[in-house]
Design goal:
globular, 5 strands, about 180 residues, alpha/beta, 5 helices, five-stranded mixed sheet, single chain
Length: about 180
């Protein structure tokens, strides 16, 4: 199985960060490729994308200001298959990526992804305003539910949490448009 390539660039609004690719994503070479994963529907239903994208189009979302990476690059059946060493190395690599590309928001797709990265135990859905300071200066941290089909939270509740991210990025985009028009 292959690693799934990151889709990162400077000037992104959001970088979505998962645990690691599924075996299906590793086979296809695209993020969130498992047909039981709701990621692409969540993005569309929340307003973050103007239409429903296919996993094979993951690189196209860079044009929308959206990027993708994982805390661990190796595909596995589940997060429980990731080793402590992989997490340690992944935390360091992820921090370096966020420092290099400096998105407006780092969106962690799952509380577990954020707790592995931040080493913080208290995590709420949404922006991590209670955190003393972001782990990478100037990058806002947002925790969203996992999009896995195994998650028991109703899909409409998950979409509502992602919609908070859409409202923030919409406000940011309209503020930038206003600055450019002044």
């Amino acid at each position: 199985m292959n690693e799934v390539p990151d889709h990162l660039d400077h000037g992104l609004q959001i970088i979505f960060i998962g645990f690691n690719p599924s075996p299906r994503s590793g086979e296809e070479g695209h993020h969130y490729a498992n047909p039981r994963n709701h990621f692409w529907r969540i993005l569309h239903q929340s307003g973050l994308t103007p239409r429903l994208y296919d996993p094979s189009e993951d690189g196209e979302l860079l044009k929308l200001g959206l990027g993708f990476t994982n805390i661990v690059a190796r595909p596995t059946r589940g997060a429980e298959d990731i080793t402590r060493e992989e997490y340690k190395e992944g935390r360091e690599l992820l921090r370096a990526k966020l420092e290099q590309f400096r998105p407006e928001v780092a969106c962690f797709v799952g509380k577990g992804v954020y707790t592995e990265y931040s080493r913080r135990s208290k995590v709420e859905w949404g922006f991590q305003e209670d955190a003393a300071e972001p782990l990478v200066d100037g990058v806002r941290e947002f925790v969203a539910p996992s999009s896995s089909g195994l998650v028991r939270m109703p899909l409409n509740e998950i979409v509502d949490i992602y919609r908070r991210l859409y409202k923030f990025t919409g406000d940011v985009a309209s503020g930038l448009d206003q600055q450019q028009n002044d």
